[in-house]
Amino acid sequence: MTDRLILPTGSPLPRRRVLQVAGIGGAALVAAACGAKPTGAGSSTESSGEAAVKVQPDQSENEKVVNWSNWVSYIDVDDNGDRPTIDEFTQATGITVNYSEDVNDNSEFDAKVRPQLQAGQDIGRDVVVLTDWMAAQWIREGFAQQFDRAAVPNAKNLIPRLQDVAFDPGRNYTLPWQSGYAGLGFNSDTLEKLTGKTELRTVDELWDPALKGRVTILSEMRDSVGLVMLAQGKDPSNFTEDDFNAALAVLQEQIDAGQIRQVTGNDYLAALENGDVVAAFGWSGDVVALGDPFGFNIPESGGTLCTDNMLVPAMARHLANAEKLMDWYYDPEISAQVAAYVQYICPVEGAQEVMKKLDPSLVDNPYIFPTPEDLAKVSVFMPLTPAQQVSYDQAFQTLIGN
Q1: SS3 for 255?
Q2: How far is it, in rounded angstroms, from Cα 27 to Cα 41?
Q3: How far apart are CA 328 and CA 161, in angstroms?
Q4: Using one digit for the tens of pLDDT, what is the confidence trace for 87-142?
Q5: Is 312 helix (H, G, I), strand (E, B) or coil?
Q6: For 6-48, how does the pLDDT look when each residue is reduced to its tens digit (9 = 90+)?
Q7: Which of 34, 42, 306, 359 has CA 20 to 30 A from 212's CA?
Q8: What does the alpha-carbon distance between residue 196 and residue 213 come to, in Å, rounded to a whole number?
Q9: What are the φ/ψ torsions at residue 215 (nearest 5 degrees)?
C-alpha cells in the first residue's frame, strides 16, 4: 500500500479543515507518573511532588450542559452545517453541548486561560482538547482533574497502543480524541507542472529550486524540526542539542534563500487550495480531506506522530456531564462517524468494523486506521525538560521571526 491516499471516485469527501498543533511556550515534562489528586475548591495539597488540583462541587445534576473547546473543524458536520453526533448526544442525554472551536494553537489557548487556572478559577470549559505535550503540562501543573473511569465505561474501547502513556499512566486524566501524522502535503497538478513529479516522497524534494517561494513549514516546532531531523538520519525521540541545531540550520538556510514562503499554522491549507503554496510540511487529515489533486505522504525518512486528548480542566463545573460526553465518543458507532469526516487516526476499537457499514471506501484508509508499516515510519518528539523547552522554543521562534 502506498503512503498517499486517493479517495475513490464518488466517495463522500469530508472537509477536515484545520488542526494546528502548534506550541511555543511551556514545558512538556512527561513524567513517569503524573498523579495529582483532586482536592476541594480552594484547598491546596501536594501529592507526590505534583501540583494540587482544585475542583468545585459538580453542578451536572442541576445544569444539563457541557462546555467543550476543540480545534477548528475537528468534528463531523453535515450539509446543513449541523454536528450530527453532538445533536444525537443531546437527544440521548438531555445535555446541551456548547461547542467552541477556539483551540487554534496549544500555546495560544494555554496563554488565554492560564491566568484563571493559576488563580484556581473555572475557565468556563468542561472538556478541552490538547496535544500530548500540553496535556502533560496541564496534568503536571494541576490544571486537569481526574475523571471516574467507572463513569466512562466505553473507555475500554481505547486502542491498546494508546491505553497507557507516560504522562498519564492508566489514562485517568485524558482520553485521546484523534491522532495524526506530520509529513509532506502537495498539489499534484501544480507540482507536476513545475517539477515533472506528481508527488513528494522526501524532505529534500521541498528544496527543489522549481518550488522556490511555494513551500511552507509548520509553526509546530516538534513537527518541522522533527521532520528535518529524520531526513538527516536523526531520531526526534532521542536527540542531542547538536542534532536540534543541525536541523534548525537547514530550515534557516531555506528561509534565508526564499525557498520557504511562510511558517504557518492552519494557513497552509488555504494557501495550498488557492495555489500560493505547492508543497508543505502538513498534517495528514488536513491534506487527505482536501481530496484530489492534493496528496499526502509520510516521507521516506519518516514522519512525526501526535495525539490530541480530551481532558477536564481543574474547577470545571460539569464533571459528570463531561464524563458522559467522553463515554459517548468512545462508542464505536459514534467514533466512526467522526472518523469518516475528520480522517485522522481513530483511537476507538471497533470503529473500523462500523466503518464497513458506514462508508466501506474508508475501511482501509491508512490515515484513519493505520497500518503497522506506517506506524513503524513515524516518531514522537522526545519529552523536553523545562530548560530544554525554553531553549528550543526560543531558538525556533527566532528562526521564524517571532
Answers
A1: helix
A2: 26
A3: 21
A4: 999 999 999 999 999 997 788 899 999 999 999 999 999 999 999 989 999 999 99
A5: strand
A6: 333 333 333 333 333 323 222 222 222 223 333 344 443 333 3
A7: 306
A8: 18
A9: -120, 140
Dist. CA 75–CA 72, nearest whole Å: 8
| Three-state SS at 248 | helix
Contact between 279 and 206 under an 8 Å Cβ cutoff? The reply is yes
Cis ω before 293 (30° cut-off from 0): yes
Assess contact for 329 and 85: CB atoms under 8 A: yes
Taking each helix axis from N to C end, the angle separating 386-399 and 241-256, rounded to the nearest 10 degrees, works out to 10
Question: Which residue has cell 494508546?
Answer: 162
Q: Are 224 and 176 in contact (CB under 8 A)?
A: no
pTM of this prediction exceeds 0.70: yes
Question: What whole-number distance in Å separates Cα of residue 188 and Cα of residue 173?
Answer: 42
Q: List, as one string, the DSSP characters of 355-393.
A: HHHH-GGGTT-TTTS--HHHHTTEEPPPP--HHHHHHHH
* 160 pLDDT more than 50: yes
Torsion (CA) 303, 283, 256, 28 in degrees, nearest 10 = -70
- Ramachandran assignment for 149, one of left (phi > 0), alpha (psi -120 to 50 degrees), beta (any other): alpha
Q: Which residues contact 113 (CB under 8 A, 6 or more apart)?
A: 123, 125, 313
Other C-beta atoms closer than 10 Å to the C-beta of 299 total 25
Distance CA 252, CA 246 (A): 10
Mean pLDDT of the chain, nearest integer: 87
Identify the residue with better confidence: 287 or 50: 287
Residue 345 has pLDDT above 70, yes or no: yes
- Name the H helices within 119-217: 132-140, 188-195
Residue indicated by cell numbers 487516526 = 345
Domains of the chain and any CATH numbers: 38-177+308-367 (3.40.190.10), 180-305+383-399 (3.40.190.10)
Query: Grid coordinates in use for 87?
Result: 445533536
pLDDT at residue 379 is higher than 70: yes
Q: Are strands 279-283 and 174-187 parallel, antiparallel or unpaired?
A: antiparallel
Mean pLDDT value of segment 40-65: 72
Contact 126, 68 (CB under 8 A): yes
What DSSP line would sit under 113-141, residue for residue? HHHHHHTT---S-SEEEEEHHHHHHHHHT
